[in-house]
């Protein structure tokens, strides 16, 4: 396990570059995101550890980060002042290239579309709206999507369907949106508690997972949402982030306010919990799979660390595992 320590900053989100498998970014905040400023850390994984490539400071907490899908140097963060910040690691200047300010409360989620024909970003805010942006068209959003009755914690593009994203909210619903029509295609009362995260399956366009304050993960088939395909229990506090594996159709990871990261196989009706990792001493908020280094996981925590590792349960994938 490799560890990077960043004193006086608390990790909220981490994402590995889609271009450089050893490059990652971490969005952090001072004072647990309650007050103070934020710092975007750009890190490099080496043979022996993790080194700092560059850091960018912002005047409010940073809660999420996403890499551009078209330029290896560009990143986007969401901040506590309701703005989105565009950063360029190749730019010698310390400030952002662009600041997008339309949300009226914290931006808790940002995601860059993986569809090649698009260059779209979606943001989700505590102002209960999601906004879609085309950064090549200036600083105004293309559209604002409304419908949630609680704060939005997660917005994520479908890796399969152009112009489609999912959102998870404090109102307990998961919603699927169509950008072309500007309407909600599907609203699922997924939990009787706030939903803090969602993620799409990388192999099936109809499967999505939610993680909530009720300590459970629910895997949904969007063609039949009367009940989840699987309900996974094991965490003792709220689930902050969920991620499907890019290498195994039914394997996913979750991190929680119980200080743990857990690996699951939802296809297993008995003992779906594969592994529990207890290597943090505070809330674990950020989580990502490496798309190019099989089964490598990165996470970040309020304990001021980023960690990179391969869970034991994934070190030797079963013969039946579907691998890209």
TrEMBL record:
<dbReference type="InterPro" id="IPR019775">
    <property type="entry name" value="WD40_repeat_CS"/>
</dbReference>
<keyword id="KW-0963">Cytoplasm</keyword>
<dbReference type="GO" id="GO:0005782">
    <property type="term" value="C:peroxisomal matrix"/>
</dbReference>
<keyword id="KW-0653">Protein transport</keyword>
<feature type="repeat" description="WD">
    <location>
        <begin position="100"/>
        <end position="138"/>
    </location>
</feature>
<dbReference type="GO" id="GO:0005829">
    <property type="term" value="C:cytosol"/>
</dbReference>
<keyword id="KW-0677">Repeat</keyword>
<dbReference type="GO" id="GO:0005053">
    <property type="term" value="F:peroxisome matrix targeting signal-2 binding"/>
</dbReference>
<keyword id="KW-0813">Transport</keyword>
<dbReference type="GO" id="GO:0016558">
    <property type="term" value="P:protein import into peroxisome matrix"/>
</dbReference>
<protein>
    <recommendedName>
        <fullName>Peroxin-7</fullName>
    </recommendedName>
</protein>
<feature type="repeat" description="WD">
    <location>
        <begin position="145"/>
        <end position="187"/>
    </location>
</feature>
<dbReference type="InterPro" id="IPR044536">
    <property type="entry name" value="PEX7"/>
</dbReference>
<comment type="similarity">
    <text>Belongs to the WD repeat peroxin-7 family.</text>
</comment>
<dbReference type="InterPro" id="IPR001680">
    <property type="entry name" value="WD40_rpt"/>
</dbReference>
<keyword id="KW-0853">WD repeat</keyword>
<feature type="repeat" description="WD">
    <location>
        <begin position="65"/>
        <end position="88"/>
    </location>
</feature>
<dbReference type="InterPro" id="IPR036322">
    <property type="entry name" value="WD40_repeat_dom_sf"/>
</dbReference>
<feature type="repeat" description="WD">
    <location>
        <begin position="188"/>
        <end position="230"/>
    </location>
</feature>
<dbReference type="Pfam" id="PF00400">
    <property type="entry name" value="WD40"/>
</dbReference>
<feature type="repeat" description="WD">
    <location>
        <begin position="232"/>
        <end position="274"/>
    </location>
</feature>
<dbReference type="InterPro" id="IPR020472">
    <property type="entry name" value="WD40_PAC1"/>
</dbReference>
<keyword id="KW-0576">Peroxisome</keyword>
<dbReference type="InterPro" id="IPR015943">
    <property type="entry name" value="WD40/YVTN_repeat-like_dom_sf"/>
</dbReference>
């Amino acid at each position: 396990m490799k560890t990077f320590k960043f004193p006086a900053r608390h990790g909220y989100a981490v994402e590995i570059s889609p271009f450089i498998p050893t490059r990652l970014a971490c969005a952090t905040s001072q004072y647990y995101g309650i007050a103070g400023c934020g710092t975007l850390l750009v890190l490099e994984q080496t043979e022996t550890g993790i080194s700092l490539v560059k850091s960018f400071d912002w005047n409010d907490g940073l809660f999420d980060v996403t890499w551009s899908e078209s330029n290896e140097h560009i990143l986007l963060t969401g901040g506590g002042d309701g703005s989105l910040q565009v950063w360029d690691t190749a730019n010698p200047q310390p400030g952002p290239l662009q600041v997008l300010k339309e949300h009226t409360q914290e931006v808790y989620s940002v995601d860059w579309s993986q569809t090649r024909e698009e260059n779209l970003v979606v943001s989700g805010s505590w102002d209960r709206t999601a906004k879609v942006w085309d950064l090549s068209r200036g600083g105004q959003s293309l559209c604002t999507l409304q419908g949630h009755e609680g704060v939005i914690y997660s917005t994520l593009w479908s890796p399969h369907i152009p112009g489609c994203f999912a959102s998870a909210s404090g109102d307990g619903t998961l919603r699927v949106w169509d950008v072309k029509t500007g309407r909600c295609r599907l609203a699922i009362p997924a939990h009787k508690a706030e939903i803090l995260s969602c993620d799409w399956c990388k192999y099936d366009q109809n499967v999505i997972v939610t993680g909530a304050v009720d300590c459970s993960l629910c895997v949904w088939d969007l063609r039949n949402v009367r009940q989840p395909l699987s309900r996974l229990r094991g965490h003792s506090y709220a689930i902050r982030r969920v991620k499907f594996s890019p290498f195994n159709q039914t394997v996913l990871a979750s991190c929680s306010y119980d200080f743990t990261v857990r690996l699951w196989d939802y296809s297993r009706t008995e003992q779906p919990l594969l592994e529990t990792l207890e290597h943090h001493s505070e809330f674990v908020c950020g989580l990502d799979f490496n798309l190019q280094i099989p089964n490598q996981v990165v996470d970040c925590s309020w304990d001021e660390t980023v960690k990179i590792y391969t869970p034991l349960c994934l070190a030797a994938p079963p013969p039946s595992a579907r691998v890209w």
